[in-house]
Backbone:
């Protein structure tokens, strides 16, 4: 009976692999850092595991191990029948220490021979390449059998017609990788690391190479899609060879059959699984599958696979905000940024245990999600995410950061859709992310079209069209996809959902710590460096507490902390780059992470209660600014600073300011900026140009908590937070009095601006309003730690309220002339 490898048996598949032989002219390189698995790698055990967990056959041969290698000249003929002088350990990229070369070449040759087992006679022979970066050509016995472009997707070749009847078979591979000399998708790779956010590239063969025998008619790809509401698993077995064949699919819970269906090959079949066990991070249950290809009652091919039953979607919480959901329930996606680089193997993990390690640490730390950042991993990485229970946001690898020209746009889109096609059946993947921070983006409308095309290709998952749409090279929000995603360092982001899109923090954090003897360059940086592990842990816990606040108050339903490990010069990991040193107190990390997952549930709990505030038309403080030196309400003195003087105001006297350092200091923090508040003033500007001028603000540690202002950038009145402005629609006139009022509503997460009693702008501005302890001031602001935006004009009748005034109250205040 033909044996099928189930998901549970995959780890043991290494027993099927023949050992390569070490030779005295090869040795492993010396990386700046080694991992706990570096010494486990040798020519006899280079990634021996079965590489394709979702379509398994028992009869196969691993071609990893020592290959001959040499640099290649442009347009050079293949070295058919010629021994190459150097050795390389496949599948480690040539720049890596584990390859034994530790060098870069734009073009290269690989060569080896192999024997076809006698028992495979009469079968078709398939060669499988997990990935070759970037362009590849393949020859078998002097016959060119394939070309392929794309560094992150695999390709298969039927080489039967090129085989000799007996004896050794010659296999030659040419690879070209120009990395950032072109616009090919490269993710974070660069030919030369910048010691910052871009890393040493990986060239050539970097995933497992293997071969297997198949019948003339065989299963070439298996696509599975769970339909949880219908208790059905959709299964499509794509086949090669003659048509008219049938497929039988059987699902097992351990060894118990729970469902079976039969139908035509290469069509979508409905496999009913009554009362299915659902897959989730807490209970990552997987069904084993056996799929048989049948020709007139005879089984001609049989493969093993697995699948999880789960549903990904969006759902409104009790607070009315749209959130990400799994299996019909809101579940906060708590993730790290996982870049997938290794100091010994670069793009390739040294061993399968190492590949699994990073994912296991996510579970240990209390995360339920991984953002696989602009890299595509080998299939076994996704298998471990499926098995361990981690949701995956899968990024498409970016090209260089500037806009891609044609024909690279077409190539990039082709590779994007191939990535989706190759990974549609992995249960763990819940979100596709085409663009990151605008890298390579060329047109906002087409970004939306790309997101739509991915959603059409795979409607079973969510699409995050553009992670970090607020950042960097972004062309702005296309409005497409299921998610709106902001990045904020140190953050977290306070993105707000829309009627049809959930909101997430796609990147935040980045707190760093130097660990001597465990740094790639002997030094490095982070968004904020800390002096010791205790401080780093405290900063993380405080930052994650704000993630929970953002989830409860603003409605984010996912967050991505940067990052699981250090990478080269980036020192902001939970682990050092070599995975040897944990940098935080993991018990505290897990505790705060669990609080987020348990309490970011859309229930409305944690939304601030600002209270009713103090009634009355004059508010908690009213400054007539008439020269008396004392306000009418609140008994606080106002001090005129830097030579400011009283002069003719809107109602009696006002304060005349010269725009060059003069302002009014109230001497105290008059507003609780964690709650609702309103600030109002009569203002007359001497000039309306490109300079910012602030009327009322309250100092924070670095920036003002709010700015009631004239925005020089927009040349309009505004009620603002840093980077967020509720803007009036028209430019004011110099020398004219205006009544300007700004309202902060923390429950609705809004800033409102009124001019002359009329509401002119409302801006969604959910923010983790912090208690500003600096003084409330008139006529300037604070930004970046400095006093800025001095008013050139006259201000009068300043009111401060500890509540959000209504439209009617603002209009009445304006009409009163006060």
Residues:
């Amino acid at each position: 009976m033909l044996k099928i490898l189930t998901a549970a048996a995959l780890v043991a598949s290494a027993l099927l692999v023949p050992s390569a032989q070490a030779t005295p002219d090869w040795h492993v390189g010396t990386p700046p850092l080694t991992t706990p698995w570096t010494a486990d790698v040798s020519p006899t055990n280079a990634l021996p595991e079965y590489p394709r967990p979702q379509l398994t056959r028992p009869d196969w041969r691993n071609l990893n191990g020592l290959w001959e290698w040499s640099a290649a000249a442009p347009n050079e003929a293949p070295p058919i029948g010629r021994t190459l002088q150097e050795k390389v350990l496949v599948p480690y990229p040539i720049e890596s220490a584990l390859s034994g070369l530790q060098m870069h070449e734009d073009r290269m040759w690989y060569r080896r021979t192999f024997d076809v087992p006698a028992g495979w006679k009469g079968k078709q022979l398939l060669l499988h390449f997990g990935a070759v970066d970037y362009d590849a050509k393949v020859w078998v016995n002097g016959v060119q059998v394939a070309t392929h472009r794309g560094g992150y997707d695999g390709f298969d070749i039927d080489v039967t017609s090129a085989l000799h009847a007996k004896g050794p078979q010659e296999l030659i591979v040419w690879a070209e990788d120009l990395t950032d000399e072109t616009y090919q998708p490269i993710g974070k790779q660069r030919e030369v690391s910048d010691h910052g956010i871009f890393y040493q590239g990986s060239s050539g063969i970097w995933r497992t190479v293997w071969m297997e025998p198949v019948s003339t008619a065989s299963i070439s790809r298996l696509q599975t899609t769970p339909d949880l509401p219908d208790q059905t698993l959709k299964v499509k077995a794509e086949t090669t060879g003659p048509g008219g064949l049938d497929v039988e699919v059987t699902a097992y819970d351990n060894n118990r059959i729970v469902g079976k269906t039969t139908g035509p090959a290469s069509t979508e079949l409905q496999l009913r699984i009554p009362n299915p066990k659902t897959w989730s991070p807490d209970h990552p249950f997987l069904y084993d599958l056996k799929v048989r290809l049948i020709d007139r009652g005879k089984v001609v091919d049989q493969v093993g696979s697995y699948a999880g039953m789960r549903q990904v979607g969006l759902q409104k919480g009790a607070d009315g905000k749209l959130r990400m959901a799994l299996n019909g329930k809101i579940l906060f996606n708590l993730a790290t940024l996982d870049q997938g680089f290794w100091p010994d193997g670069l793009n390739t993990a040294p061993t399968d245990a190492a590949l699994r390690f990073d994912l296991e640490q996510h579970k240990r730390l209390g995360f339920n999600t991984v953002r696989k950042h602009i890299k595509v991993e080998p299939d076994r990485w996704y298998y471990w995410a499926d098995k361990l229970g981690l949701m995956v946001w899968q990024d498409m690898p970016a090209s260089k950061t500037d806009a891609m020209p044609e024909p690279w746009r077409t190539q990039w889109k082709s590779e994007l859709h191939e990535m989706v096609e190759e990974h549609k059946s992995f249960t763990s993947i819940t979100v596709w992310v085409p663009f990151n921070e605008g890298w390579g983006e060329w047109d906002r409308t087409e970004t939306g079209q790309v997101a739509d095309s991915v959603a059409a290709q795979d409607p079973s998952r969510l699409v995050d069209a553009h992670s970090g749409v607020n950042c960097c090279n972004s062309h702005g929000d296309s409005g497409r996809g299921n998610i709106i995603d902001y990045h904020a360092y140190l953050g977290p982001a306070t993105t707000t959902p829309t009627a049809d899109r959930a909101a997430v923090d796609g990147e935040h954090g980045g707190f760093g710590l130097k660990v001597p003897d465990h740094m790639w360059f002997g030094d490095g940086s982070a968004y904020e460096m800390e002096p010791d592990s205790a401080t780093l842990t405290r900063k993380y816990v405080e930052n994650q507490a704000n993630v929970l606040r953002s989830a409860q108050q603003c409605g984010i339903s996912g967050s991505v902390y940067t990052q699981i490990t250090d990478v080269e010069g980036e020192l902001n990991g939970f682990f050092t780059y070599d995975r040897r040193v944990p940098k935080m107190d993991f018990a505290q990390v897990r505790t705060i992470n669990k609080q987020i997952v348990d309490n970011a549930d859309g229930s409305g709990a944690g939304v601030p209660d600002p209270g009713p505030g103090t009634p009355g038309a004059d508010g908690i403080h009213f400054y007539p600014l008439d020269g008396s030196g004392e306000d009418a309400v609140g008994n606080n003195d106002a001090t005129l600073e830097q030579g400011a003087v009283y002069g003719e105001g809107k109602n009696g006297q006002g304060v005349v300011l010269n725009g060059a350092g003069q302002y009014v200091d109230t001497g105290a923090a008059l507003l609780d900026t964690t709650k609702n508040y309103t600030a109002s003033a009569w203002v007359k500007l001497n000039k309306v140009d490109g300079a910012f001028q602030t009327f009322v603000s309250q100092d924070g540690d670095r920036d003002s908590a709010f700015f009631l202002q004239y925005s020089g950038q927009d040349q309009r009145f505004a009620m603002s937070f840093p980077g967020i402005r509720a803007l009036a629609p028209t430019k004011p006139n110099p020398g004219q009095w205006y009544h300007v009022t700004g309202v902060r509503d923390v429950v609705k997460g809004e800033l409102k601006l009124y001019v002359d009693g009329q509401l002119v702008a409302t801006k969604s501005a959910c923010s983790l309003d912090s208690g500003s302890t600096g003084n409330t001031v008139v006529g300037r602001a604070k930004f970046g730690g400095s006093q800025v935006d001095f008013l050139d004009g006259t201000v009068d009748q300043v009111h401060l309220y500890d509540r959000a005034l209504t439209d009617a109250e603002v209009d009445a205040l304006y009409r009163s002339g006060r």
Remarks:
- The helical segments are 352-365, 379-388, 408-423, 444-457, 533-554, 586-599, 807-816.
- The chain has a mean pLDDT of 94.
- The longest helix spans residues 533-554.
